[in-house]
Design goal:
This protein is α+β, with helices and mostly antiparallel strands and 317 residues long. It has four helices and 24 strands. 19% of the residues lie in helices and 48% in strands. Strands 1, 2, 3, 4, 5, 6, 7 and 8 form an eight-stranded mixed beta sheet that branches. Strands 14-13-12-9-15 form a five-stranded antiparallel beta sheet. About 5% of the residues have low confidence.
């Protein structure tokens, strides 16, 4: 009986290893470099690939090589060995992530150093960012996802937590976002607009469709609000609130095309006076509502400096 149990357990473990989706290397840096061997201990640039490109991982074990550039040689840099189009390359560990497939941020999300609202950072990941997803964690009925991404400001890879619903591993979502990124690099306006519209034709999830639509509106100027779209309403007080406590953008004009003139705390502590609204509505994060002109007030009802337009889905009377 014991031998039978051990055999069954061994078979289960073996099958799990066979059928488990293999890890890949996801390029997180746009125009990320693939490198080839140079001498016995160095590697040099060979070609670049776009962020989101999936590479076959030869081994999870890293190798240390000298990184040779035209300017200087950097000693003892860690690399993964990968295969791309049947050729062997080296990719820098600090520019890639390990995952079963590439993923994309489909919503704006606050960054957390640990899977808890108490560990939020004063930073966000924008929709369209390519990420590699690690473990998913549920804490206090909130779902978090560990993601690796390339911080373009500091030029390094970072690993943080985001709200899990802000990340999509849907293959079509990733494909559409990669097409959008390719479009934005096209100088010819006609070809760029055509590529953006082709990305929109891909059957993506609602949030990614919304992101691409807003981007096209911004790039092509297809929608805007006129004075006829704005009406005065009876003044009332409201609180700014979101499900994840992310900062809410205050814009100079209604709609996502408006420039950001401020941000409001959305944990339910910020009070505003609402005086205007748009007659037209938009759908953001699955919510259809108007845009509202608000003025932040303190606990005594006195006006503060922050005022502008925010989406109605973030207001609660």
């Amino acid at each position: 009986m014991k031998k039978t149990f051990i055999f069954i357990l061994s078979t289960f473990i073996l099958c799990s290893q066979i059928f488990a989706e293999p890890l890949k290397v996801i390029m997180l840096r746009d125009n990320g470099p693939l490198r080839v061997e140079e001498g016995n201990s160095g590697v040099k640039w060979s070609q670049t690939i776009s962020a989101g490109t999936e590479l076959e991982l030869v081994s999870e074990k890293t190798v240390t090589k000298n990184l040779i550039t035209t300017d200087k040689t950097y000693p003892d840099v860690d690399f993964y060995i990968v295969k791309y189009k049947d050729n062997k390359y080296y990719v820098q560990v600090s520019e890639v992530g390990l995952a079963s497939n590439a993923a994309v941020m489909c919503q704006e999300s606050v960054l957390f150093t640990k899977p808890s609202l108490a560990y939020f950072r004063n930073a966000i990941l924008e929709p369209g960012t390519i990420v590699a997803v690690g473990k998913r964690v549920k804490v206090d009925d909130l779902n978090f996802a560990e993601v690796s991404f390339f911080d373009t400001n500091d030029g390094i890879k970072r690993t943080r937590y985001v709200m899990a619903n802000a990340v999509s591993e849907n293959e079509k979502d990733v494909k559409a976002i990669l097409m959008v990124q390719a479009a934005l690099a096209i100088k010819d306006e006609t070809l760029r607009n055509e590529t953006l519209n082709n990305a929109l034709r891909i059957k993506t999830t609602d949030y990614v469709t919304e992101y691409i639509e807003n981007l096209i509106d911004e790039k092509l100027g297809l929608t805007s609000y006129s004075e006829d779209d704005i009406i005065e309403i009876n003044e009332y007080k409201a609180r700014v609130t979101t499900k994840d406590g992310a900062k809410v953008n205050v814009r100079s004009t209604p709609g996502t095309k408006g420039s950001v003139v401020g941000k409001l705390d959305s944990t339910g502590k910020t009070n505003v006076i609402v005086t205007l609204k748009t007659t037209k509505t938009e759908k953001i994060e699955g919510i259809t509502d108007s845009w509202y002109y608000v003025t932040e007030i303190d606990s005594d009802g006195f006006e503060k400096d922050t005022k502008g337009w925010i989406f109605g889905g973030y207001l609660k009377k």
